[in-house]
Amino acid sequence: LAFSGLKIVALSGGVGGSRFVRGLRASAPGANLTAIVNTADDFTVHGLRVSPDVDTVLYALSNLVDDTRGWGIRGDTFKTMRALERVGGETWFQLGDQDLATHLRRTELLADGWSPSTVTAELTRCLGIRDVTILPMTDQRVETSVRLEASGEWVPFQEYFVRQRADVSIKDVRFEGIERAKPAPGVIEAIEAADLIAFCPSNPFVSIGPILAVDGIREAIDRARQRGARTAGVSPLIGGHTIKGPAARMLVELGHEATTLGVARQYVGLLDLFLIDPIDKAQADALRQLGMHPLVTDARMRGRRGEARLARVVLREVERRRRAGS
Ligand code: GDP
Ligand code: CA
Fold first, then answer.
1. Residue 237: alpha-carbon gap to chain centroid
2. 300 lines ligand 1 (CB under 6 A)
3. d(CA 217, CA 183)
4. Shortest CA distance to 266 belongs to which of 239, 245, 236?
5. Per-residue confidence band for 272, with pLDDT thresholds at 50, 70 and 90
6. How far apart are alpha carbons 206 and 249 in whole angstroms?
7. Distance 207 CA to ligand 2 centre (A)
8. What is the pLDDT of residues 167-218, one digit of tens each?
9. I need a labelling partner for 19 at 20 to 30 A (CA). Which of 58, 141, 207, 314 fits?
10. DSSP-assigned letter for residue 282
């Protein structure tokens, strides 16, 4: 099997992250793969605990995901939402009928005293995912909120991201509860044992940012690198644009450049390799100056083959460096 025994850890958000994790699984079937997933987007709606990024990863890896949207379950219906509207419920956060089962079950298990990581392990098992370990970044509650430019008001992330469609300017991001958050069981161990730590093409501020802000995770990555683990990022921006979501806009609003270099600067001192699209190759030298070796290849993940191809470019370079001892 390709990349047999290689220990890979992927730091992931939702849509972009889950696709790259799926690419890693497809191109390294012999590897030991762990996804550490952002939970700072989690929130409670209709009394249900929803964990959007964990669910996107669960659905992507169990082939349930709606690949066009990138989230939710393929073929799902929204009858409950319409019925909910009829009885005066809020429906701005669309939850499919099948998707609701996941949130019902999570909420039930949490109420029974399970931790988010054991709930995730149970859902992983029930959905038949056997070749990837999925770990929430923490079992404690962390809640992203953003500060709106216009009013100066802090609003919960989903309110901005879904209700306002990220269509308003922000000037700050914070992760409430992050000081008290401990890495979930297995997170530090996986990082410490990893040969490759991949930073998926996820939003650097609201997907990867919270993971890196959990107590001890950065230090564990540093220790892993000191012992020879390689780290690789994949740019979520191509030619200054995102495929989906507000990352480009957030870069500008938070005072950075909306380029692949602007993303890389969020990861200074953390990455050995950074994958960028040929359209951005003029930034390769600047990446080298940040200490990152640029991997230039078509960065669009077109379908399953595209995801696997992108992952393979990273895996081959990591394997080459391991062999060369560089
Ligand atoms: P979310 O948590 O669902 O918002 O998703 P993530 O944070 O994991 O990923 C969002 C990012 O994925 C966006 O900035 C997209 O540009 C990026 N993305 C989506 N599809 C692709 C792709 O095909 N290639 C690359 N390089 N990035 C992608
Ligand atoms: Ca997310």
1. 14
2. yes
3. 7
4. 236
5. very high
6. 13
7. 6
8. 999 999 999 999 999 999 999 999 999 999 999 999 999 999 999 999 999 9
9. 141
10. G
**Amino acid, single-letter form, for residue 165:** R
Handedness of CA 47, 48, 53, 56 (dihedral sign): negative
The confidence band for 2, taking pLDDT boundaries of 50, 70 and 90, is confident
**Cα–Cα distance between 321 and 202 in angstroms, integer?**
25
Single out the residue of 239, 317, 208 nearest to residue 273, CA to CA.
317
The values of phi and psi at residue 223, to 5°, are -65, -40
Q: Which atom belonging to ligand 1 lies closest to the Cα atom of 306?
A: 23
Say what the pTM is: 0.98
Mutational test site, ligand 1, from 244, 275, 314, max ligand atoms within 8 Å of CB? 244
Residues 19-73: tens digit of each pLDDT? 999 999 999 999 999 999 999 999 999 999 999 999 999 999 999 999 999 999 9
Q: Which two tokens stand for residue 285?
A: 């030298």
Q: Which residues, at least 6 apart from 2, have a Cβ–Cβ distance to it below 8 Å? A: 27, 28, 29, 30, 31, 315
